[in-house]
């Protein structure tokens, strides 16, 4: 069984980097991952995961060899007049960099879900300003945290254990006892 330590979770903005992934070639087990993080890692071994390239036909999709699929993709891209690359948020920094490089090479428009998710927030911040702190500042300094207008257990399940109730920080060495 392979054990990978200090893996960064790709799901929410909590960026939990203390995940352990245990892989035996067929199954994955996680330690320190929340339900959302564990579900994302389970996708790696899901029976629903597409493992071979697919080419669209009139009757649906068919499996193809990599060379054939890459040739078909290259043909689609070279014939495109206005390619757009839409990148998801649950990907590694390396995958994002590769996507941006491909977009630049194709002279494509590149967008992500940040436009519709965080974009309006950023526009509001640019217009009105924002009072903010980093998660590290909160962890190290806050003695009371109020969750206002958010369901942190739904959106970032480990936030409370890493940054509020059970955390330990520079000025909070004994956690909530300080």
TrEMBL record:
Q: Does the keyword Oxidoreductase apply?
A: yes
Q: Which GO terms describe its cellular component?
A: membrane
Which Gene Ontology BP annotations are present?
Answer: respiratory electron transport chain
Keywords for the protein's UniProt record, in alphabetical order: Oxidoreductase
Question: Taxonomic lineage of this organism?
Answer: Archaea, Methanobacteriati, Methanobacteriota, Methanomada group, Methanobacteria
An example of a Pfam family matching this protein is Molybdopterin
Q: Does the keyword Oxidoreductase apply?
A: yes
List each copy of the Molybdopterin oxidoreductase domain by range. Answer: 49-157
> InterPro entries recorded for this chain?
Mopterin_OxRdtase, Prok_molybdopt-oxidoreductase
Q: Enumerate the GO terms in the molecular function aspect.
A: NADH dehydrogenase activity
Name under which the protein is recorded: Molybdopterin-dependent oxidoreductase
- Its domain of life reads Archaea
């Amino acid at each position: 069984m392979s054990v990978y330590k200090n893996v960064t979770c790709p799901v929410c903005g909590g960026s939990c980097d203390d995940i352990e992934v245990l892989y035996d070639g067929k199954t994955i087990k996680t330690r320190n991952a929340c339900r959302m993080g564990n579900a994302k890692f389970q996708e790696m071994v899901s029976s629903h995961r597409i493992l071979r390239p697919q080419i669209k036909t009139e009757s649906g999709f068919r499996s193809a060899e990599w060379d054939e699929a890459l040739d078909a993709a290259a043909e689609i891209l070279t014939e495109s007049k206005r390619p757009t690359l839409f990148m998801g948020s649950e990907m590694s920094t390396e995958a994002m960099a590769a996507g941006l490089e491909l977009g630049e090479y194709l002279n494509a428009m590149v967008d992500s879900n940040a436009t519709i998710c965080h974009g309006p927030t950023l526009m509001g911040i640019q217009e009105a300003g924002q009072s903010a702190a980093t998660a590290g500042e909160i962890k190290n300094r806050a003695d009371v945290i109020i969750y206002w207008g958010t369901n942190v257990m739904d959106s970032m399940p480990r936030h409370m254990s890493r940054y509020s109730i059970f955390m330990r920080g520079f000025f909070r060495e004994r956690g909530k006892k300080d």
